[in-house]
Amino acid sequence: MNRNKYILILILLLTSLGVFSQSGKDKVESLLIGFITKQVNLSPDEAQKFWPLYNEYLDKLSSSRREFKKQFSKFESEENLSEKDAEAYITAEINLKQRESELFKEYYEKFKKVIPSKKVVRLRKAEDDFKRELLKQLKGG
Amino acid sequence: MRQVVSVFFLKLSLLILAGSGNTYAQSADSSNKSQAKIPKHYFKSNVFLDGYGFGSRKIRQTDAVSERLKEYGWSQSMLGFYFPFKTIDFKSKNEYKKNLHLLFSGSFLNAKPVFSGIAQHQLIRSSLGVRAVYSDGNKVVLYYDVHPFVAQDVSSKTTTVFRWSSSIIYSYSFNETFTMRMGVTRTFLWGDRYHLPYVGLRIGRLDRNYFSIQFPRNITYSFKMGQKCRGTIFMAPRGSVFTMANNDSIYAGIDQSFIFGRSEFNSGFRLDVRLKKGFLLYLANGFVTRKEIRFSSYQNNQNNLKILTPFYSNPNLAGSIFINVGLNYQFGKARKIYNNKNIYEAIDLNSHDGLDGSSNGNAQIPVEEISEKKHLLQVQDISDLIELQDLD
Q1: Å from B272 to nearest chain A CA?
Q2: What rounded mean pLDDT belongs to chain A?
Q3: Which residues of A touch B97 (CB under 8 A)?
Q4: DSSP string, B79-104
Q5: Over 60: is that where the pLDDT of B124 sits?
Q6: B371 Cβ under 8 Å from any chain A Cβ
Q7: pLDDT, tens digit, 9 for 90 and up, residues B36-59
Q8: If contacts are CB pairs under 8 Å, which of residues 79-138 in chain A contact chain B?
Q9: Chain A residues with CB inside 8 Å of B391's CB?
Q10: Which chain A residues contact residue B275 at CB under 8 A?
Q11: Is the CB of residue B111 less than 8 Å from the CB of residue B121?
């Protein structure tokens, strides 16, 4: 009886397997991390110090973007956009880009304490290459 | 009054869980110039459901109690949780990120032993505990937990007894692929109260394939099966100590209830499947061997601080097949932990339920992404990453 109950629960759960997958953004992040790991070639000690910092940097980056999106989610369609709203949107976007660049500046100071600047350049290049790779894939190349 | 205690534990757990919503911090490090809010904790909150059981087998031992019991089988379901309530980051001169994580944890277990010769009993165990995990950001993780619990037989009037289990474990990673652990554990997993040394070693990375011996908990070989699944071959003890009503007069003394200790050894295969949105489903199946049940009198063991002296024990129960199904749900925002091996270690230490032996499958450790199938991505997934100049 009890075994039948477990089997029934199992069947119900297995039927829901169709929904399994990481969300797209998590997958991109995992791919990015995998790509950087291969390209930057950190020593074990550098990796122990660098990855917590880089995770923190990514956390702050996505938090800034999330806040921006949250603030302007109501303007998905430009039809409801007044001139004043449009101005606020552009100002916020400029602020976001500025924040992102300040964030990198702040973290560059931290990164160079744990890895040589040469590897920070390799990191930036890996980030760029990753974007290009993704674009290439999306274009079907 | 006695049943109220369990309900109180359950309500308190739910109340604490409901209050764990605020997961953002302004910034862990007050010196940070940017004002972005990042999550407070590294650990996600976790709720899990676990079902475990094995079929009835005839008891072959020949004595009065065995003949009364006739058959022995087991089924149990458990609802458990843990969530972080405090994370402290420490400044370090050597650039490693040291932190302390404090978590609440709790579980409610409902078990039905199947003795075909006596009335059906419903045994419950409620626990509410605290865990502390310190990671030095490099090689060391220190883990401590304490889980007070109360076990009762809700099918009849029983004595309520408080017990507690606890572990303190020191983990040292020599390198990415070799970790050793040492400590002490007060555990009921082996069907009685034992104070045992904890000795563990792991060869291999937690996000890849690894072989692990964690005495007295388990021996496992765990391997990745694609991006969504993980398979584990394991051997592990499973057991606990319950309170059982003496309404079948199993015990000839005056006790209203007695201590029911059970333990068995599971050997089998477990499949973990990561579902969408923080859900993880697992299924384990295999053989149950070295089954043992022990009944001990409260009266006769009142001042006994060592192993309980049973009035009935049966270490020769026939083996059978077990099934274990569980669903984990991890929720709340947590800090990113990619490639942070020290935090992976902390998560692994926290993944084991010290009371029952179940594990949450390390669902929070990111899967190492090796897939080249980037074309499965959607444009909106990467829109944040792409700048106009990238199109040149």
Answers
A1: 12
A2: 82
A3: 49, 52-53
A4: EEEEEEEEEEEE--TTS--EEEEEEE
A5: yes
A6: yes
A7: 688 999 999 999 999 999 999 999
A8: 99, 102-103, 106, 113-114, 128, 130-135, 137-138
A9: 135
A10: 16-17, 19-20
A11: no
| Average pLDDT for B57-63 | 92
> Residue B353, SS3?
coil
Categorize the per-residue pLDDT at B65 as very low, low, confident or very high, splitting at 50, 70 and 90: very high
User: Percent helix, strand and coil across chain A, each rounded to 5?
Assistant: 90, 0, 10
Nearest CB neighbour to B340, from listed A6, A55, A128: A55
A59, B38 Cβ separation under 8 angstroms: yes
Token readout for B101 is 């994580």
pTM over 0.90: no
Strands B38-39 and B24-25: antiparallel
Q: With contacts defined as CB-CB under 8 Å, which chain A residues touch B387?
A: 131
Pairwise CA distance, residues B86 & B82, whole Å: 12
Say if strands B71-90 and B98-114 run parallel, antiparallel, or are unpaired. Answer: antiparallel
- Give the pLDDT confidence score for residue B201 in this predicted structure: 97
Beta-carbon contacts of A66 under 8 Å, excluding residues fewer than 6 positions away, are: none
Q: Which residue of A has its CA nearest to B37?
A: A63
CA B348, CA B339: separation in Å to the nearest integer? 14
Q: Do B36 and A67 touch (CB under 8 A)?
A: yes
Determine the Cα–Cα distance for residues B384 and B391; give it in Å rounded to an integer: 14
How does DSSP assign B2-35, residue by residue? HHHHHHHHHHHHHHHHHTT---EES-SSTT-S--
Q: How many CA atoms lie within 13 A of B259 on its CB side?
A: 26
Distance CA B155, CA B144 (A): 34
ipTM: 0.82
DSSP string for A79-138: GG--HHHHHHHHHHHHHHHHHHHHHHHHHHHHHHHHS-HHHHHHHHHHHHHHHHHHHHHH
Residues of B in contact with A16 (CB under 8 A): 275, 281
CB B115 within 8 A of CB B123: no
Of the partner residues B325, B337, B341, the one whose CB lies closest to the CB of residue A48:
B341
* Exposed / middle / buried, residue B140 (Cβ in 10 Å: 0-12, 13-18, 19+): middle
Q: What is the pLDDT of residues A32-85, one digit of tens each?
A: 898 899 899 999 999 999 999 999 999 999 898 888 888 877 666 666 678 888
User: What is residue A78's predicted lDDT score, i.e. its pLDDT?
Assistant: 67
